[in-house]
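Recap from last week: sequence in, structure out.
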Amino acid sequence: MTVRHDDDLRELFAPLAVADPAPAELRALHRGATARRSRSPRRTLAGVAGVTAVLAAGLAVLPGAPSSDDPLAGGSVLRAAAAAADDQPVPRVQDAPLRYAKLRSTFSYTARDGDRMAERHVEQLQESWVGAKWEGRTRSARGRVWNTGDAALAQAAFGFTDALAKPRDEPYAYGDGPLAELDPSTLPEGREAIVATLREGIRLDRWGPYPEARGQEHLPAGPERDAYTTYAFIGLLVNARLTPNQRAALLDVLATDPAARDLGAVTDREGRKGRGVALTYGNQRFTINFDRRTFEILEWTMSAAQELVPARHGHMRISGSPSRVETVLETGYATRIP
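Predicted structure tokens:
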């Protein structure tokens, strides 16, 4: 089956001559929900713009078209999503072992120097095919970078972000986040079992990339760890090859989170209408927009209402972490990487 692409996205990306980012720059850029440790996934920004990709037979595309019937009316958005996810037609793992996702990632940064203020925005399309043990491939189109406010200040503060717009075609990399060494296929399917396994594993850094840290409690109980855990759950729901029961269990876990708040009907950047939920932990806020029919994630955001921190030079102050918008354009399952 052929994956559909939006023709109007072809004009979106202007060529950029950029250098590869240093590993330290990528680690600094892709911070997760916690400001204490740079341990979140630095997923490779990947995708193909203006090109038709042919996948193997067995790809089930879930386009996220809104339905006229809203099964969420009068109920919990995530609890309804959990119930619906359990009934979704998903091919068997042995028939289609790869999770396919096409996303548009947008990161926005803020800098101030006295009365000067600037924002830097980086946007790129990405495609990924991910199987067991996070093995797979990512492909990206050449992205675009633009500034608002003081352009000179934006370049001085965030010049290194230009490299993130470079096109890529490379093995999928989960990065240095809390689930780096986790094989999602080994997770249990029951709600109580999966939440216990994931929360305890994240608390003790069971699957982290640094052997010396495993088994040690690296985050205190509270909003910081809760945000860190929700960030990992969203990553699993979007990118991991999960069974319907595993997906339903994760959604049900979020449904019982006291931080969850129903946002009602929402519209994403593609103009698709869905149902939204917000989860706030201290100064960290996530929003998730679900398709009303498939309960796949249409779009999710992450932002932190935190003080700007001093930069290493001059009086410049920069945001401690960028705001992030991930628009999920396509999802499905595939037998092989095209």
